[in-house]
Amino acid sequence: MTVPHECERGGSSRAKICLNQSARGARSMSNQYNDDMDTEMGPRVMMVRELEANQDSSLDDESEEDEDDRWRELARGQDVPSDYWHIQKLIKYMKVGNQTATTVALACLKDQDLSSDTNQMAIRECGGMEVLVNLLEAQELKCKLGTLAVLKVISLNIDCRRAITDLGGVQQLVEILDDPARDLQILAAETIANVCKIRKARKIVRKSGGIPKLVDLLEADPHILETPRTSMTPEEVELVDVVVAGARALWALSTSQKNKEAMRKTGVVRLLARLLRSDHNDIIVPIMGTVQQCATEANFQLAIQTEGMIPDLVEYLSTDNTEIQKHCASAIFKCAEDPVTRDIVREHDGLEPLVELAKDERLLEDKPLIAAVTGAIWKCAISLENVKKLNTLGIIPVMTRLLQDQDKEVVTNVVGALAECCKVASNRAEVRAHNAIKPLVLHLNGTHQPLLRNVARALNECAKDKECMLEIEELDGVRLIWSLLKNDNPEVQAEAAWALCPCIMNATDSGEMVRSFVGGLELIVSLLKSPHTNVLASVCAALARVALDRENLAVITDHGVVPMLAQLVLTAPGPWGARSGPVYRCPARAASLILPDLTVLVLGPVQLDAQDAERSAARRRARPGQSAGARRREREQDKFSETHSLHYSAKSQAENELLREHLASAIANCCSWNNNCHQFGALDAVRPLVSYLESNNKAVHRTTALALHQLSTDPYNCITMHHAGVVSYLLETIGSSDEVLQEASAGCLSNIRKLALSAEKFKYEN
């Protein structure tokens, strides 16, 4: 049978292969080759040369001479080894030869050093990639085996991978996975593993239905997984090789997010969990690599946890194979965002091997391993119980020693671990005792954004200690932290603003220090225009501390902080918004209109009975001044919020609550300057601020009550907030166990009472 694979770009004519100088010798060697192929893949090195031109009537003498001239010119232009021409001749025979010639040429090609760049270039330049891809469609088993053996090796080269993908070879490889011959499945899967290092190939495999086929290759008898290779039959060894090849291919495919989801839907997690318990390291390595690649997805993290894979990961941390240790630590690093996973790691004694790996100086040169280990320690340290356990293992000296590492990823994870550990007060003193403050401050001069984010977080915790803060001041660390506000990464901006809060509170002369930063206050006020909720929350928290100094408050007022904060109140995300209603400009006249409600506060003690509670609830449903249309729109908005509540993730809701808490705190502290309090009311920031009391977060209640207390010193604001229904809320919060909330609520009610007395006096006099 002759395989039709004439190449469009190879303009050579038909040639024949002669293994000896006679036709009889060629036939005998061909028969001998066919016999050898039954027992082993391909012959040994065989010399292949062309017949004389006069022995083939179809040979075009003129075109062959031109081609030889071109080769000679190329040889004169550069020093090309003889293998280059030998490979090109083999490709030429594959183009025009019959089945036997093609098979022999493939065997000879396979015996060449195909890992050499020169030999790979020889295959590409003479159209060999087209021929090899075409041969994947051949029906002859030996041709397929030879072709796949060649493609498996040359696909390690990026140019060859692209050529295979562009020529449609990936689809052919996926189809070969359905072949019952296991040796074909192994070679096809290994070639897919190499080719799928490029994105286009990964997409083609998914679109061609290759992922379910590769997952099917992972199905293996549990007996085989538990038996050592030395005790296996050749057939069982081949089955293990099929699993290894399939696992390597899935590992390469798992770098794509869509492929991860497709793999999860095929039920691969259950198979991965079973294969993790195998006795074969060549299976465990790609399986562990796949697990750590997929662990970036939340769905996979939950599946890994529910399938009971975390204890297996912890167990493999104690193995002697550093690659397996690296993948295990990396998987824990990614999965330990979940608190349940962190607890499982601690309960199965996973912290001890992690710390031991970090202590091992022999592993310091293996940067990927150290990065994975320190990352796992960082994420596990998020839990306070884990920090206590790590302290008993001496984690602080280990982490401070690794601060001197040159690898950015390692240092980033180390600083992240220190930031979590420093949430315990005793660890801050230990960090200072090991002289870690200076290297932390020096890292603020870098440009690696994840590192900057973690350094700001670590200094945020350290600045809560007076002695650490003194050292940070001496090293000019506050100025460096403030300069991070210019960074274009919103996460870096947010962490820098959070770090400024304890720095401002614990600095020796914080007011003067802040004013000494040229353009610093203008910079932080300008960040109130940021579209990122976390940045806004952190900046509001920092401004609340800055505003405690009257001179600084005057400066930020001149920079327009009041209208910016008022705008944030109006646009702050949440399930509620501003309430509609009239705004009164004459406080005495306005108070006279709502006198019946205000006199209740004047006449009797603040005490709620059942009827009062019912009236308070009724006020929430229909506040004074609301039209029927406004109440209808409010009900529709509430219904919409309930229907679409799933669109708000837990993280975004927490960020919104954090923003409201610190926004109210900033407003409270900004009210003490000049007419800022009145300006907030003029900008209609009071009414939506009252709605913050609907939150279930007590911290939001506290800062909102503080803000309302300050705002209620202005009579216009007092009328507006009363009209917005603030009284019913304050009657509830005044009974809180939080003393700050009690005092703020009582102060606001006191100001409303004073206004009521003024209204009574105004009515009496007129």
Structure description:
Among the domains are: 1-154, no CATH class; 586-630 and 672-766, Leucine-rich Repeat Variant. It is 69% helix and 1% strand. The protein has a two-stranded antiparallel ribbon. Helix 47 (726-733) packs across helix 48. The chain starts with 16 loop residues before the first strand and ends with a helix.
What is the structure about, briefly put?
Residues 614-647 are annotated as: Disordered. Among the domains are: 1-154, no CATH class; 586-630 and 672-766, Leucine-rich Repeat Variant (Alpha Horseshoe), CATH 1.25.10.
Poorly predicted parts: 1-62, 575-613, 618-627, 629-634, 636-648
* Computed CA radius of gyration, to the nearest angstrom: 37 Å
Q: Give the strand line-up of the largest sheet.
A: 1-2
Strand percentage:
under 5%
The termini sit apart by: 116 Å
The number of E-state strands comes to 2
* Main sheet record: 2 strands, antiparallel
- Average pLDDT, all residues: 83
Helix/strand/pairing category: mainly alpha
Continuous helix count: 48
Binned, the helix content reads: 55-70%
- The global form is elongated
Feature tags:
single chain; 766 residues; mainly alpha; Leucine-rich Repeat Variant; two-stranded antiparallel ribbon; 2 strands; 1% strand; ARM-type_fold; ARM-like; Armadillo; Armadillo repeat-containing protein gudu
